[in-house]
Amino acid sequence: MKKKWNQIIHILVKTDVLNGIISAVIIVCILFCRKQKEVDYSVLYSLAIVLIITTVGHFISVVVNNWIEDGIKLTNDYDKLCKSYKNKKQEYTNPKDNKKDKKKDESGNKVIFPILNEGKLLDLNIHIDDKPENMYKLPEFAQEHYDELIKAHSSSSVYNQLNIRIKNWYLNDGVFNIETERTTYYDSLVTNRAMDYHLESGLSIRDKLCYGPFLPALGESNLSNHIGFNGFLETSDNYIPIIKRNKDLSIGKRVWGLSVEGSIKVCELVSSETEKLTVSALIKGIRAEYHKELGIPKNNDDLKEILKKEKSKKIKKFIESLIEKGVTLEPKHNPVNQNPVHGICTAYRNIVEGGKPQFFTYYKTSLTKNELEVFFKENARKNTKNLFVDGKRIGWLKAEDICGDKGFLVYNNKIICKSKIRKTKIRKFKMVPSTSVCFTFAIESGLFNSEE
Question: Where are the transmembrane segments (predicted)?
Answer without folding.
Answer: 12-32, 44-68
